[in-house]
Amino acid sequence: MKKPLKITLISLGSLLGLILIVVGIACWIVLTPARLTSLVRNQAPNFINCDFDIERADLTIIKSFPKVGVAINDVVLVNPMEGSPSDTLAYIDECVVSVDVKKFLKEDQIIINECRLNGGYVNLFTDYQGRSNLDIFPPSEPDTVEENSEFTYGIDLASIKLNNISVNYTDLTQGMIADIDGLNMSAKGKMKGNSITGNVNASLQKIAYQQASDSLSMAVNLNGLKFEGDAEMNGDNVKADINASSSSFMYESNGQLAEFNNFAFSYNGDVNNFDAIKGNVELGVNDLTFVMDDEALVNKADIKLITPLDATLSTMNVELGASQLGFNNIFINLIGKVAMPDENIVVDLDLNTNTIIVEELIGLIPASMREELLAGIDVKGELQLVAKVNGVYNETSMPVVNAEVKYNKGMISMPEMLPYPV
Asked: Which of 147, 149, 285, 328 has the fewest CB atoms within 10 Å, measured from its CB?
C-alpha cells in the first residue's frame, strides 16, 4: 500500500482512538451538552490557530451504545485576510459522527455508522504572496510511520452524507475564482487490506470558474452535475460502473466559445494494473456549439458515441468493438484498432454510414468554408459510404483509404458552368 494512504489511514485510526478516549472521559463525568460544549471549546485551540465558535455539542451514547456519536451544531471558523471575500473560513450547520466502539476494541474494525454534514460553507483563499487562510493548524509531528508498516484494521463507512454544501475558492496568485453551490453526496464503502469497495451518489447545483491573467482569460460554468458509481478495487485492479451527467456546460476563452446541453457519460468495465481498460462506454451531448473568432464551426450538434473499448495506456493501443458515432442524423459504424507505439499512428479501421442527406452534410460545413467551396453550386441527393482505413499516419505518410460511395437521387447545379442541372 502506498505510503500517503497508509499514513492517512493510520492517522484516521489514531483520531478515532482519541475520540473513544474523549468519549470514555465524557461518560465518566456524565457530560451534559453544556459541559461537552465547554470542553470542546477549551480543547479546540490545541488543534486550530484561528477564531472559532461552537453553539452546541452533544453525545448520543445513551441512545445508540455501543455506537458512540457526537453531534456539533453551528460551527464557525474565522480567519480574516485582506482581499478575502469573507472573514469566515468555514461554517457548518450540523456535524454528526457515530462510531462502533465494540467493533473497534474487540474486532479491529473501524465502523463509522454515520458521518453527516448538514448545511455548510467553505471559503478557501490565497493572497498574492501565496498565504492561505487554511494555514490554521499547528506544526505536525515528524513522520514516524515506517515504509513497510501494515494497516491491519478493517474500515466500514456505513453512511457518509453531505447536504447542501457550498465552496468558494480564490487564488490571487493565479487569478482564479471558483464557486461550488449545492453539493450533495451520499457514500458508503469498506476497506480490508488491499480490497476496497464503495458506492457514491453526488450532485452539484452549479460550478462557476473564472481565471484572468495577462495571457489568459477564461470562464467555465457547469450546471446540474450528477454522478453515481459503484467500484471495487483489489490491489491495482478496479471494477467500476459509473454514470455522470450535466444539464449544461459553457466554456469561454480568448475568442473561443464552447457550450452544450444534456451531457451524459457511462462506463461499465475493468481497469487492470491502472493501465488496461476494458469495458463499455457511452457518451452523448445535445446542442454542441463551438465558436472561434465569431464564426460557428459547430452549431447545435447532437453527438452520441457507443463503443466497447479495449485500451492499453502504456502502449497507446486502442481496440474498438462494434461501435457507433452519431453526429445529428449521420451515423458512422466503426470497428478496428488504432495504436501509437511511437511517433507513428497505426490505423486499421472498417467503417460504414447510414444514408446521409447531402444537404444536411453540407450544412455542417462552417459558413465561410461553405461559401468558398460551393459558391454558385447547388448539390442534392443521398450518400452512403463503406470504407477501410489501413496504414501509418505521420509527417510523411497517410493511411490507405479504400472506399465505396453510393450517390442516389442526386442533382448538381452549376449555372455558371452548365446550362442545366446534372
From this structure: 147
Is pLDDT above 70 for 19? no
pLDDT at 64 over 80: no
- Residue 152 is predicted with a pLDDT of 57
pLDDT, residue 350, reads 96
For the full predicted model, state whether its pTM sits above 0.90: no
Among 143-147, 279-283, 362-366, the range with the most confident prediction by mean pLDDT is: 279-283
| 3-state DSSP of the chain | CCHHHHHHHHHHHHHHHHHHHHHHHHHHCCCCHHHHHHHHHHHHHHCCCCEEEEEEEEECHHHHCCEEEEEEEEEEEECCCCCCCCCEEEEEEEEEEEEEHHHHHHHCEEEEEEEEEEEEEEEEEECCCCCECCCCCCCCCCCCCCCCCCCCCEEEEEEEEEEEEEEEEEECCCCEEEEEEEEEEEEEEEEECCEEEEEEEEEEEEEEEEEECCCCEEEEEEEEEEEEEEEEEECCEEEEEEEEEEEEEEEEECCEEEEEEEEEEEEEEEEECCCEEEEEEEEEEEEEEEEECCEEEEEEEEEEEEEEEEEECCCCEEEEEEEEEEECCEEEEEEEEEECCCCCEEEEEEEEECCEEHHHHHHCCCHHHHHHHCCCCEEEEEEEEEEEEEEEECCCCCCEEEEEEEEEEEEEECCCCCCCCC
pLDDT tops 60 at residue 84: yes
